[in-house]
Amino acid sequence: MKKQNIFVIRGLFVGAVFHLTCMVAVAEVAVVVGAKSTVTKLTAEQVTGIFMGKSKSFPDGSPAVAIDQTESSPIRVEFTSKVLGKDEAQLKSYWSRLVFTGKGAPPKEHAGSAAVKSSLANDPKLVGYIEKSAVDASVKVVFAAP
Q1: Around 115, how many Cα atoms within 13 Å sit in the side-chain half-sphere?
Q2: Can you list the domains of the chain with their CATH numbers?
Q3: For residue 113, what pLDDT is reported?
Q4: 23: left (phi over 0), alpha (psi -120 to 50) or beta
Q5: In angstroms, rounded to a whole number, what is the distance separating the alpha carbons of residues 72 and 55?
Q6: Residue 65: how many CB atoms within 10 A of its CB?
Q7: pLDDT tens string 119-143
Q8: What's the alpha-carbon Rg for the chain, to the nearest Å?
Q9: Residues contacting residue 143 through CB under 8 Å, at least 6 positions apart
């Protein structure tokens, strides 16, 4: 019986260490536009407004269209939590209500940061988010999540 308790305690400890390690490895989020976009900076409120479908334009009046990453991707979970202040279930519920009432549709999903950057390069009205480590000359960071 004592030997079983040691294995249980050891398993819990290993699980806790793994969980903490995963939390430390979370990527930093950069909200980006294409390098040719005229937008240079957005506030947290402006980013939230665009990604929640409440705002359809950038501060300069030009059209703004948000693009998302695939559901449950680590960067999307981080963006949703840090920038939008929601979890996946809350966000899904929010968009379900808007779709049901005909008042909006969620941003189109892209499979990864490379796909987001590729779309941004071809359309100045798009805004997306990627891992900070994926930022290169093809995009401009307009907001960095805290």
Answers
A1: 9
A2: 27-144 (3.40.190.10)
A3: 94
A4: alpha
A5: 24
A6: 15
A7: 999 899 999 999 999 999 999 999 9
A8: 19
A9: 30, 31, 41, 42, 43, 44, 46, 47, 83
